[in-house]
Here is the input.
Amino acid sequence: MNLLTIGLAAAAIIALFVYIARTQTITQARKTMKEGGIKKLFKVYGWKAAAAIFVYYLVRDVTLYIVIPWLVARGVMST
Here is the structure.
């Protein structure tokens, strides 16, 4: 897997996250968060808000701290 392929995969993932972030439900949740804070967000959306926040940070951290370093190390060690 070369660097161009990795870059294209990362761009596709970012485009997917941007698409998801602009959906109506997410837009309403962001508005609720701005109006009433985290308490109102959990009051309106319940456990779904907590699950969404958990999954967001899980994907972000796995990508930043596991996948990217692994790909870099794999590329550095193969050459």
